[in-house]
Amino acid sequence: MAEAAPDTRTKPTRPEDERLSIGASFAYGLQHVLTMYGGIIAVPLIMGGAAGLAPGEIGLLIASCLFIGGLATILQSFGLPFFGSQLPLVQGVSFAGVATMLAILDGGGGLGDVFGAVLVASLIGLLIAPFFAQIIRFFPPVVTGVVITTIGLTLMPVAANWAMGGNAEAEGYGSMANIGLAGLTLAIVLILSKVNSATLSRLSILLAIVIGTIVAAVLGMADFSGVGDGAVVAFPTPFAFGWPTFDVAAIVSMFIVIIVTMTETTADILAVGEVVKTKVNSRRIADGLRADMLSSAVAPVFNSFPQTAFAQNVGLVAITGVKSRFVVSAGGVILVVLGLFPLVGRVVAAIPTPVLGGAGVVLFGTVAAAGIRTLAKVRYENNMNLIIVAVSLAFGLIPVVQPTFYDAFPDWFTIIFHSGISSAALMAVLLNIVFNHIRAGNTDNSSVFVAGTSVRLLKQVDLQSLREGDSVVGGKVVDADGEEVPVVPDDRYEVVRRKVASGEITSRDEVRAVCEE
Questions:
Q1: Least buried of 9, 15, 56, 389, by fewest C-beta within 10 Å?
Q2: pLDDT category of residue 302 using cuts at 50, 70 and 90
Q3: Contacts of 220 by beta carbon, 8 Å cutoff, 6+ apart
């Protein structure tokens, strides 16, 4: 009998490069679209209403945002030279700019001023992206863990609002029927995750949304009557609302928003890198930010707004375990199709908000859990990492638990710190620099937040101060348990101390590796 031909397929060197079948890719891609669909259409709905647009014009805004979001997602996940992080990140319209864009409209400007401000501010962001990416060295686990945890926690109010009905002015908002539907969807996710089938478990979010929608339709809680209204096919017309206009004040305000979105995108890139278990360096962040800014600069041409990575989809990657970036690219193709075929988009838009809320509880909670897992890797002994985590998380939650906290502050400050994600990220980076990079004023055990360390370091001049039980065996210093104590040369001591304090070094082997560099 002839021998079987050898398998010449090679496994991807990076988890995110795994390729699934076309059917599986689009099935999982659809999950991503359903997860973020409510968020991506919310901004054009808000902006269209504030600008006094007719329903048909608002529909054009929605189609444009779906179209650009799809192209941006493909660019970010599939990638081109210098553009795209090549990670499973879904792009869409950023909520961070809503307050600023509404302020531009309230100040007498029109959509032309909004589009002009987005265009110029995004181009500036594109220029500074490589420099912004250099902050990667200021994002050790103590920082990334805080940011990832905050992303999950700050998204929970979104899930709760969806579960209650999504619109506080609507009849039945917060009713037992809405919350019960959300609870049913959550229960279906948990049940499908428990069954002895990897396929069903991975598709649990999508199947739960489909089943939840069917149940809602049977109970009369889903309305598909408007699906047939409007055009079946429509291509986003460039500058459909007129040419952009350029107001300096609007551009400056929007640039602050761009800085916030770049901070959030950096956090999301780091978060999904942690979930996927792949290497993320400053070059990859720069490529991701360039894709973000290029998409944001092109968006106003096609009647859309600033683009950013969607944090909720990071949770979907974590909960499904599907790490392939090509799955997200497939989701981007679906978004482009939805933008070209508003009829399909209207069908998806008819999914009851409570159903999305039930799925959101799992998704957003998973993001927070991923952050907690990262924080568990941080060393808190003989350093100030505990107070870094405590203060940064507090700043991230302030705008969540008290949304009006910063209302009396200047507008530029409010824009930055009203986002729990950006405020937590900024505080974590700042405090990490103060306590782990600026060594002046730091002493061992200088605070109630500091405990004794389990990683011992000895300078060469400290060998005369050995502890009881220490001994020298074969020219090496060992402690009472027989473990070798690293001897760090004087010229490397502060470098090693800083890395231990920040959590970059967590074992004696890593100490030795740094000393040998």
A1: 9
A2: very high
A3: none
Q: Output the CA torsion sign for 152, 269, 300, 237.
A: negative
Tell me the C-alpha to C-alpha distance, in Å, between residue 103 and each of 43, 98, 140, 265, 267.
14, 8, 36, 23, 26
Phi, psi of 308 (to 5 degrees): -155, 165
User: Do 423 and 260 meet the contact criterion of CB atoms below 8 Å apart?
Assistant: no
Angle made by CA atoms 315, 319, 321, in degrees to the nearest 5:
110
Output the CA–CA distances (angstroms, integers) from residue 364 to 326, 404, 421, 437, in the order listed: 22, 23, 13, 32
393: Cβ contacts below 8 Å, ≥ 6 apart = 146, 149, 150, 424
DSSP structure string for 370-438: HHHHHHTTS--BTSSHHHHHHHHHHHHHHHHH-TTTTTTS-HHHHHHHTSHHHHHHHHHHHHHIIIII-
Beta strands at 476-478 and 471-473: parallel, antiparallel or unpaired: antiparallel
Spatial CA neighbour of 397 closest among 371, 417, 367, 370: 417
Where does the pLDDT of residue 314 fall: very low under 50, low under 70, confident under 90, or very high at 90 and above?
confident
Residue whose structure tokens are 């590796």: 513
**Mean pLDDT, rounded, for 89-116:** 81
Give the pLDDT score at 460: 58
Quote the DSSP letter at residue 436: I
How far is Cα 4 from Cα 63, in angstroms, rounded to an integer? 51
